[in-house]
Write a structure and sequence with these properties.
By secondary structure, the protein is α/β, with parallel strands linked by helices. Among the domains are: 2-203, 3-Layer(aba) Sandwich (Rossmann fold); 442-535, GMP Synthetase, Chain A, domain 3. It contains 17 helices and 25 strands. An 8-stranded mixed β-sheet has the order 2-1-11-10-12-13-14-15, sandwiched between helices. Strands 7-6-5-3-4-8-9 form a 7-stranded mixed β-sheet, with helices on both faces. Strands 16, 17, 18, 19 and 20 form a 5-stranded antiparallel β-sheet that branches. Helix 3 crosses helix 4, helix 3 crosses helix 5 (103-115) and helix 4 crosses helix 5 (103-115). The chain starts with a helix and ends with a helix. Keywords: Ligase. Pfam families: AMP-binding (PF00501), AMP-binding_C (PF13193). This is Long-chain-fatty-acid--CoA ligase. It is an enzyme of class 6 (ligase).
Length: 538
């Protein structure tokens, strides 16, 4: 065990040195940075404190309000933490964040870390009743939100202090204070390290029901970061454009990676495909962090528009948050080069596997292989590990698996590993393929059918923009799939075309009973299709 631990630490050190995280530093700064890292640990507070020591004048954040250096972010978050402490907010308190991607979200999160408070991430796409239900359950001491959500959070914020993170007018609504005002009046001196680290509570996407709060402790070591960097070649002091929402586990993962690497964050409040290309060009972004539907929207701009922008600075395009169709992966790499990485995981297990460009070229649609420090196994209904090539429930183990739902409850566990909620299979080269949600499987004619296989097949039909399938009752087969299809502009596809294509490629019982054409699929803020909404459609 000791040798394994020493080997892991050696590999972590080598990886972090090679990526530039531990580059040359003036001796006095190095001593101060190491002390800060020892005091704070690998938390968001520790990351910004150490970067402010090593690279105080380097740009830390670029958003629509301008830019901030690492030293400015460090002092501003100190001031915010002190101001919140004066307001009675402290260690162990919940602070809810309902913000888009901008400096206010980052500064509120870091201030929570410096206080030992828990940061509760609220989804900007949630409706008022959902927010009220979540806040009644989580009982936040304060809510930090963008002014555009003021009416939405009315019931949710009735028992909480309210702070505006982003205001276009500069005047807060009644009963709220601007975050900027607190920062201006707060003490920028260093904060005393809290006795316990604050947690980050990420809400599940709620694609099949009420969102749950997943308690995610901040990492204890740098091993998980090193394991991911081995797979996704991010480099220190790069420029990372995070287009994926920061409140989602995928955006958060790259926020944490960027902190550890002392990288510049490029943030935009709303995703716009052409603005994203413009930001890459203007700021020389080296990494682009997206959910797959964003890549689809970028490619839809067409070659003429794409050609207007210089994206040659990009070294990594990293996608996660929902399924990455193989055809889309190939098109992205044909357009931007073999720099696409696809990560599979969940709110509860963090990450499970990463597909490199080599994986995506060799096996389009794959979720890849586990990074170092992560174990992935597949189990059948009797909790027995399945044979190679067979489909099973996906279970994951790593340092970042969540601590349980904030309202109580856990995901299923086997042999110390946690369920991701999906089913999948490994190919002969050890690459994982995710076949669908374990609760979406239907039994048709006595055979197990997973929507993902049928969706991928329909997606390969010419003229199809996107597709989703759900299970419905069927008199002949017990259950069949119902497909919801979006046709590409200018294309003509009929219900018979879809059924015939599936019949040519899959077993008869996998042919959808019905095909419904829509203008767009309902999605949440992270690009996941809301199948609960599709089930309601006639």
């Amino acid at each position: 065990m000791l040798l394994d631990t020493l080997s892991t630490k050696a590999l972590t050190a080598r990886t972090l040195i090679e990526c530039g995280m531990f580059g040359p530093t003036r001796p006095d700064k190095l001593v101060r940075a190491l002390k800060a890292l020892k005091d704070w640990g690998p938390t968001t507070a520790g990351g910004y404190t150490t970067s402010s020591i090593r690279y105080p004048d380097d740009v830390s954040i670029i958003d629509e309000a301008g830019s901030l250096t690492f030293d400015e972010v460090h002092r501003r978050t100190n001031a915010l933490a002190h101001a919140w402490s004066d307001e009675g907010i402290g260690e162990g308190d919940n602070v809810a964040l309902l913000c888009r991607n901008h400096r206010g979200f980052v500064e509120a999160m870091v201030a929570c870390s410096k206080l030992g408070a828990h940061a509760l991430f609220l989804n900007t796409a949630f409706a008022g009743p959902q927010l009220a239900e979540i806040c009644a359950r989580e009982q936040p001491r304060a809510i930090v939100y963008d002014e555009e959500f003021d009416e939405l959070i009315g019931a949710a914020a009735q028992d909480s202090r309210r702070f505006i993170a982003w205001s276009d007018g500069g005047t807060p609504p009644a009963g709220a204070d601007l975050l900027e005002t607190l920062i201006e009046r707060g003490d920028p001196a260093d904060v005393v390290v809290p006795a316990t680290k604050g947690k980050i509570v990420i809400l599940t996407s709620g694609t099949t029901g009420t969102p749950k709060g997943a308690n995610r402790k901040q990492p204890e070591t740098l091993d998980p970061i090193a394991g991911l960097i081995e797979k996704i070649p991010l480099r220190a002091r790069g420029r990372t454009l995070i287009a994926a929402p920061l409140f989602h586990s995928w955006g958060l993962a790259h926020f944490i990676l960027a902190i550890g690497l002392s990288s510049t964050l490029i943030l935009r409040r709303r995703f716009d495909p052409q603005d994203t290309l413009s930001a890459i060009d203007e700021h020389g972004a080296t990494a682009l962090i997206v959910v797959p539907v964003m890549l689809q929207r970028i490619l839809e701009l067409g070659p003429k528009t794409l050609g207007r922008y210089d994206t040659g600075s990009l070294r990594v395009i990293a996608a996660s948050g929902s399924a990455l169709p193989g055809e889309l992966a190939t098109k992205v790499m044909d357009t931007f080069g073999d720099i696409l990485y696809n990560l599979y995981g969940s709110t509860e297990v963090a990450w499970a596997t990463v597909a490199t460009p080599e994986d995506l070229r060799a096996a389009p649609g794959t979720a890849g292989r586990p990074p170092r420090g992560t174990v992935v196994r597949l189990y059948d209904a009797d909790d027995e590990e399945v044979a190679p090539g067979e489909t099973g429930r996906i279970f994951v183990g790593n340092e970042l698996c969540f601590d349980g739902y904030s309202g109580g409850g856990q995901k299923a566990r086997i042999d110390g590993l946690m369920s991701s909620g999906d089913v999948g299979h490994f190919d002969e080269d050890g690459r994982l393929f995710v076949d669908g949600r374990d609760d979406e499987m239907i039994v048709s004619g006595g055979e197990n059918v997973f929507p993902r296989e049928v969706e991928d097949t329909i997606a390969r039909l010419a003229g199809i923009e996107e597709v989703a399938a759900v299970g419905v009752e069927d008199g002949d087969f017990g259950q069949r799939l119902k497909a919801f299809v979006v046709v590409r502009e200018g294309a003509t596809v009929s219900e018979q075309d879809v059924k015939a294509h599936v019949k040519e490629n899959l077993a008869r019982f996998k042919v959808p009973r019905d095909v419904v054409f829509l203008d767009a699929l309902p999605r949440n803020a992270t690009g996941k299709v809301l199948k609960r909404e599709l089930v309601k459609l006639p």
